Amino acid sequence: MLIQFSVGNYRSFKDTVTFSMVASPVKEYTADNVFEANRFHLLKSAVIYGANASGKSNLIKAMKFMKELVFKSAKESQITDPIHVEPFRLSIETENTPSIFEIIFLKGGLRYRYGFEVDSQRVYREWLYYVPKTKEAKLFERDENDFTIGTHFK
Q: Which helix (H) or strand (E) holds 60?
C-alpha cells in the first residue's frame, strides 16, 4: 500500500517532489476517504490536478519508470544496456546528477522505504529500509558497487 512517492531530476521535476497518500488533519471527509493502516491515516483515493504542463503526467511516468526498472531490469536487460531515464534538461545544475526515485509503502503490516539514484549509464545508489517496530532499520544499501547488508536482512 502506497504511503508516498518521491522523484527528483526527472523530466519536468528539477527538485525532489513528493506525492503523499497521508491524510491531512482536515476532518471534513475523514469517514468517506480515510482509513487507518499501521498507525497511518491514509487516503483511499487521491486526485492529481493542475494547469497544463504542470507535471501531472510526468508524475505518473516517474512511477511507471520506477516500477519497470525494478521489475524488468534484472530479467530483461544486460549490465551494458542504457537505462532509459529522462533527467531534467533545463538546468546545468542537474545535467551531471542522477535522477532520484523513492517509495514508502506498507507490506505485511510493515513500513518499507526503497529508492535509488540512476542515470542513463548506471545505478549510483540503492537502498531498502524497513520499520520492524518503531525505528527504521537498514536491510541493504548499495553505493555503486559497494554493498552494505543490515543485520535484519534475511
A: helix 56-76
